Amino acid sequence: MVPLHSPILKPYLITRGLVPENQEHPIHFVSAAITPESSFYLRNHFPYPRISEQSFVLSVGGEVQKPRTFQYQELLRMPFKELIVPLECAGNNRGLFRPRVFGEQWGGGAISQGVWRGVALRELLRYTGLQASAKEIVFEGHDFGRRPDLEGEFVFARSLPLEKAFHPDTLIAYALNGEPIPYKHGYPLRLIVPQWYAMASVKWLRSITVTRTHFNGPFQDIDYMFYPEKDSDTGKIPVTTIQVNSIIQQPLNRSVLDKGMHQIYGLAWTGTGSIKKVEISTDGGGNWRPAVVQPESPNAYSWTFWNYTWFADQKGEYTIMSRATDSFGFVQPAAAKWNRKGYGYNAYSVVHIKVE
């Protein structure tokens, strides 16, 4: 007799696009602090670049005292840091904005968390030095292609102000979760910028250029800007720091539950400080009660798990909400600030439940 075994159940990525490939992390079904490669979300603007010998060379130039190129193996021999850092797409939850906006209609899964190993950027720049005229540092990837709004081809490139570039935890990373960074996530080298939305963490890094003027590439001054007006650029500001946020993982939206005890649980994260409080409402925001938040992690940037025990003793329909507060006093708002490109959604997490 052949024994029967239960299949190993696992969630899969949720596809938003294939060329370029954009896929969501199955965020509602994971309980591990570290996201495995198979579940790590994918965000691309262009087709994947080809990897060649040149991909293993990183050049540093511009307003520096000693321009240099660094070989991949050279970086591996340098003192390294290892950090747990969540990466969140600036468009995470874009599909929830009302009025609706154009762009990839992400749900809540354009965020994943990994262990990144690499060389601190500021340590690398000690080898080149900076000129007194330095203003920004531009990071260019190997990925390139066309945009629908502009003529010609463009590489993906972004800049950081000197203060953020010289933060001790801004890394030139070469490993994710103890292995070389997977090809789809930027192999062999990727910039990692903790606390900022993931557009700053340039993949397939090929060059670092120190400039004396503001960098105005299309992924700096057109995309990844908050535009509060639908038909005007008035009041636009750059997208930078991750806003305080939480998500209800379980129960799922529109679930039907039996009367009795249920666990409401999820994640919370922020780009400023750490999560200090998560509150739950089971009556559509009329009343709020504290959830149990995991002890503060020694990992400064890690997301936080929370849970709340709910006794559903009456049949009916319920609106459950979560909101997080961080150590800087930022509170997740009832409504996200609308902007026409759909960045930075962080309104209360809301699920509608029926109890029978």
TrEMBL record:
CC cofactor: Mo-molybdopterin
Domain Oxidoreductase molybdopterin-binding, first and last residues per copy: 45-217
Domain of life: Bacteria
Xref: InterPro entries: Ig_E-set (IPR014756), MoCF_OxRdtse_dimer (IPR005066), Mopterin_OxRdtase_euk (IPR008335), OxRdtase_Mopterin-bd_dom (IPR000572), OxRdtase_Mopterin-bd_sf (IPR036374)
Cross-referenced Pfam families: Mo-co_dimer, Oxidored_molyb
Keyword Oxidoreductase: yes
Keyword entries, A-Z: Metal-binding, Molybdenum, Oxidoreductase
Residue ranges constituting the Moybdenum cofactor oxidoreductase dimerisation domain according to the UniProt record: 240-355
Protein name per UniProt: Sulfite oxidase
Organism placement in taxonomy: Bacteria, Bacillati, Bacillota, Bacilli, Bacillales
